[in-house]
Recover the amino acids of this structure.
């Protein structure tokens, strides 16, 4: 089975580093981007299986990046996990926000919640294909 590739987009270098190490240790091929514009540039040369996207980036909102991805035929079906400090853990547990193939998780994230969410979205995209 091929390694699944995940693009992590966050303007916090510590978050990028920790997520990169954690997801690599779980067997994923990880690519990183430090803001929305950089993510869009990275996506010109690679098509990840899933994107973990911070909601507040240095140059644009995660929602703006997600909208650009949804309007591009090459990236429109890539599942996205949107991490947000503006989304509470209580909301995450009670509402489990999912908008199409965009799932919202609260920051600070918990790997015990993030990893199953990644697996769920990756499995759902395989089933659709």
């Amino acid at each position: 089975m091929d390694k699944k590739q995940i693009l992590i987009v966050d303007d916090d270098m510590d978050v990028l580093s920790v997520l990169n190490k954690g997801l690599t240790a779980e067997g994923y091929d990880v690519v990183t981007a430090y803001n929305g514009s950089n993510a869009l540039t990275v996506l010109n040369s690679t098509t990840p299986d899933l994107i973990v996207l911070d909601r507040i980036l240095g140059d644009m909102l995660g929602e703006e990046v997600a909208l650009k991805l949804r309007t591009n035929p090459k990236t429109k079906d890539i599942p996205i996990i949107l991490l947000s400090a503006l989304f509470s853990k209580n909301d995450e547990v009670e509402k489990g926000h999912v908008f199409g193939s965009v799932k919202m998780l609260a920051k600070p994230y918990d790997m015990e919640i993030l990893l199953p969410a990644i697996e769920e979205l990756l499995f759902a995209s395989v089933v659709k294909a």
Notes: The first strand starts at residue 5 and ends at 9. Residues 91-95 have pLDDT under 50 and may be disordered. The beta strands are 5-9, 29-33, 50-54, 80-84, 98-99, 102-106.
